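quick one before i forget lol
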Amino acid sequence: MSRIYTVLLPDIGEGVVEGEVIEWLKEVGDRLEQDEPVVVVMTDKATVELPAPHPGTLAKQYHEPGQIAIKDRPLYDIALDKDYEAVGLESEEDSKKESEEEAADELVALASSNSATAVMPKARVPMQRAAGTKALATPPVRHLAQQLGINLDSVAGSGPEGRVLKEDLQALARGQEGTTAAGPETSRAAPRVLKSSPIWDLEGDVRTPMIGVRKYIAEKMVEAKYLIPNFAYFDQADMTRLMGLRKNLKQRAQEEGIRLTFMPFFIRVLSLCLKEFPAFNSSYDPFTNELVTHKQHNIGIAIKTDRGVIVPVLKGVQDMNLTEVVYAYEELKNRALAEKLSSSDMKESTITLSNFGTVGGMWATPIINYPEVCILGMARAVEQPVVRKGEIVIRPMMNLSWCCDHRVIDGDQTASFSNYFIHLVQHPAEIL
């Protein structure tokens, strides 16, 4: 009989303690070669393929796509080849039973919270923690706690292993529920939990689980709308001269294997604007009630991939000239499309660009990528009649949609910022 080796979710780095199972690349019964990718797991940092540590046959999957796997807890079982021997294998086998026992209660709890059915789980019971111990929570939950002014370490979490959930914080903020980690249970009511789905079941309906990037985006967007008092500002830029500059540079770029788009120009323009208006490259710190102005221009760029829209970050743009931006953006975009981004590529952005004009549309109100204070949405350049020197002429006009955090940015600042952005677009010689 083959030995069973239990593969645990490894330490992916960057303080990641859990990951969502996105896709099984192998099914139960499939042959596994050592270092062959078995499962795709997404964390709040990146999406990674995890390889088999040993050869054998996939014997068991502990999670369905969309469910959460916990670091150092069972992910899948391998039925090892009979003649296979590996250094340290016995010591890991000895710890398997202990790991399974520790994970048993957690897997039961996750079964309800991860279910893709419409029925919501029953109300969770907060788990008390010993005084002085740190709360277990995902980065979005920590961000929410900061904005609500809640000491996360004092909250009794209702998630697996006492993990603090967004529902715990929102309930505390509403004054409906809560116990502290070391204090006695209060008499306040438990948070309201839906007992069934509010969605009508109509004939022909199809239900698709929200997993992976789409689920992560949904959580981030709710967080941003919940935390940021945003406002929108709209303007237009004449693209005539910038189109001419791109046309002149396009042939040289093609010779070097680069498909020159307008995005590198916009990145360069935005960085020059941030040097003149540093407040747009800042973040509000609710812990200290301070405005943190970032020296680094780390520009998040929305890119559509097969797994959804992601926002990798082009870092240190303030030190790049236009040519360097072109090459750096091309390299980042290619890695994003090939799903080769590292965790560091997905964090530390200070402002975001979203070029929805590649698809269509005229105006938008893009949601700010928290904890940034500004995002720019750019539409497609469309020929329109405009007045120039008293005459009506046709010009390619691009609509600009700014959304800003009103705690930090005022309307007149945004108008000035946008005016300078437009000036550089319409006088591109200044960005060379």
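fyi Confidence is low (pLDDT under 50) at residues 102-125, 176-193.
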